[in-house]
Structure formats: structure tokens, C-alpha cells
Amino acid sequence: MAVMTGEGGAGSDVPLRASGCAPLPAGRDAAAPIEELGQRLAALAGLELEDLRTAWRKLYRSAPPLRLSRDLLQRSFAHRMQEEALGGLSTAAQRQLVALARSLAADSKQPPVSPAVKLKPGTTLVREWHGRTHTVIVQEKGFEHEGKHYTSLTQIAHHITGAHWSGPRFFGLRRAAKNPSRGAADGE
């Protein structure tokens, strides 16, 4: 049975930390935390179920779920170690998860948020409007349409249609909200 230290420092048998990672000391190689993480993850494979349960109690300050297998305990610790070393979810992702959980708790049929579409520079968007094909090229900072620079797709959609449109919706990057009182008039 391995000895649990909870700190993962030199001489510890189990490289598991109960708190966040310490800042990198001056002069230490930036790749060292990744190497250390690899060593800590490899050490998980040698732990017995009771060692993992003891580590769980130290880390989470509660008993582990009763029927959680050794494999799932190892995966949980591996996730936590990676999160400490490399960072957790972004604030935006956390907000989306909270909104989704609230939506599901309210027994909603549709998730409250849709995944944001990330457009890389060089991507070409094509849209036909009233028999004419419009091509937009995504740039580092904005978009190009007919040789002119625009800061948003909405500006381009307004230029093309003469009316206010959601640019991402106009170019098919988002679906329209379902509204039974309105028809599906796209203007085509």
C-alpha cells in the first residue's frame, strides 16, 4: 500500500496534490510542469483501490461514491491533475454548462445555448440572395465582401439585403428560432 502525502513533492509515493499547483519557481524549465504531470499520471496506474479512496477523502474532503470503480477513481484523479496543471474550463464554458443545467432542470425541450461557431481566417462563406451569389472571406479582424472590409457579418447582410438581419443567421451559421406565428420567409 502506498503512503498518501497529498502534496506530490519529492519523496512522496503518490504524486497527488489536494490544492492548486504552486507557481513555477524562477529559472525552472516551463516544460517541467508537463513532465511532472506525466509522472503523476503514470503513478496513478500503480495505486490500489484503497489508496485511491484515501486520496479521494484528502482531495475532496468527503467519502468517495460507494460503487465507484478503481478505473473511474483513477480517471477522476487524472482529470483533476490535468485541470490543476493545465487549467480548467473557461468562464464562458462554465456559464454555458450552468445555463444548460438550469434548462434541463426546468425540463426544457431545447438547450438554452448553441455552440458558438468559430470561423478561421481564410474561410469562405457563400450566400445566394435574389439570384446573385455573394462571397465573404473571413479575415483576422473582420470580413471582406466585394473588395470592402466589414467588421461584422451583420453589416454585410444589411448591405446585401437592405434590411436588418443577423449576419450569422443570414449566412447559415445559426438556425432561426422556432416561432409558429411567423412564416419561414427568408427573402429568397
Explain briefly what this protein structure is.
With 188 residues, this protein is an alpha+beta fold. Helices cover 37% and strands 11% of the residues.
Describe the structure.
The model is unreliable at 1-26 and 180-188 (pLDDT under 50). A 4-stranded antiparallel beta sheet has the order 1-2-3-4, covered by helices on one side. The radius of gyration is 26 Å and the shape is elongated. It has helices at 32-44, 49-60, 70-86, 91-105, 153-161, 167-170, and strands at residues 124-129, 132-139, 142-145, 148-150. The chain starts with 31 loop residues before the first helix and ends in an 18-residue tail after the last helix. It is an alpha+beta fold. The longest helix is centred in the middle third of the chain and has 17 residues, at 70-86. The protein is built from 6 helices and 4 strands.
How far apart are the termini? 71 Å
Task: Describe the main β-sheet briefly.
Answer: 4 strands, antiparallel
Structural class: alpha+beta
Neighbour order of strands in the largest sheet: 1-2-3-4
Please tally the β strands and state the result: 4
Count of separate DSSP helical elements: 6
Q: Extract low-pLDDT stretches.
A: 1-26, 180-188
Q: Which of globular, elongated, flat, extended, rod-shaped describes the shape? A: elongated
**What is the arithmetic mean of pLDDT?**
76
Give the arrangement of secondary structure elements.
Elements: H1 32-44, H2 49-60, H3 70-86, H4 91-105, E1 124-129, E2 132-139, E3 142-145, E4 148-150, H5 153-161, H6 167-170
Antiparallel strand pairs: 1-2, 2-3, 3-4
Helix pairs in contact: 1-3, 2-3
